[in-house]
């Protein structure tokens, strides 16, 4: 009869050993990329707010009067552009925002160039001539390059980031399995859900890895999976098929827009942009978040109007198309409103807003910001846990291997 307790720890199961091995080595392999992707994601979250407050020409004072029609705004913009360019210009589109935002008239001064003229939508006054990115915009273009491509050429960087994000999902899952307490005692609950700030630096680092990783798990998973969509077409199609039962390229945007009737070569209406603008305003009364009218360039191009009922998100945006000469509306799959979609189609349409944390405004942006910061911290704290495992302490004794790091990435 054995009366004493065995000093040997029970051997971990094969599943546990494989799980921990995957977590460790996959985390080490992808850590640097995940760190850059998550850190740049945290910066990217508030890009619109930074642009809005550092670019005063985007803002106007709301007035108790309607916006001027496109022709009136373009007349003011055309006179300004002709002075700047020394010749008449052809506009490619016009964008209206909310009552507190300026309107934007776009034109191409040459091949591969796109300029914008910001005007006050109430009186047509020219506010700014934009010929390139602002300093804040240039900064976020740099940030996006790190987030999407790890500062590499797109063809190389996009799959590198996408593969690292897939690994990140695996390490988050294996980390959660490793974190899961074997016993739900008070001591284990404290270790799993609380950071022991009065512990030594190794304990604090371990808790930052374990506890913050657990709390950020669901948000980090959502942000990561929704981002992989933009790295791999096969993932995009598979994800869309899983949600909607169908798959299209370019994240749901059809490559087959309706075309204008080329047998009609003469426009039947003068001021077509005004007519279409008024038609849209009649169909969608009240303040819109964004209304963009893209003008046809080729003979078979239609007028394309993007309508977003809200400001700050894009998932409710839908497009309407009109023949360039007859202004007859052309049917398109992209003309369906968000309310007309199935549950799976709605979730797929919300993918970008979920990914950047803007799905429910400021609260979810703040949530995405902190989840991204935690995601960036996990490779750092995880590497420290791994590097110091088994290292001798000042007393000459080896430190025990931590039992449950949540994620090396």
Describe this structure in words.
InterPro entries: PepSY-ass_TM. Keywords: Membrane, Transmembrane, Transmembrane helix. It holds the Pfam family PepSY_TM. This protein is of the alpha+beta class and 409 residues long. Among the domains are: 56-133, Roll (Nuclear Transport Factor 2, Chain: A); 246-355, no CATH class. Helix content is 47%, strand content 10%. The protein has helices at residues 14-44, 47-54, 70-85, 135-149, 154-179, 186-193, 201-215, 217-228, 233-244, 272-283, 343-349, 351-355, 362-387, and strands at 91-96, 103-107, 115-119, 126-130, 290-294, 303-308, 318-322, 329-330. An eight-stranded antiparallel beta sheet has the order 4-3-2-1-5-6-7-8, covered by helices on one side. A hairpin with a 6-residue loop joins strand 3 and strand 4 (126-130). The longest helix has 31 residues, at 14-44. The two termini are 47 Å apart. 29% of the residues are buried.
List keywords for this structure.
409 residues; alpha+beta; 13 helices; elongated; disordered N terminus; disordered C terminus; membrane; transmembrane
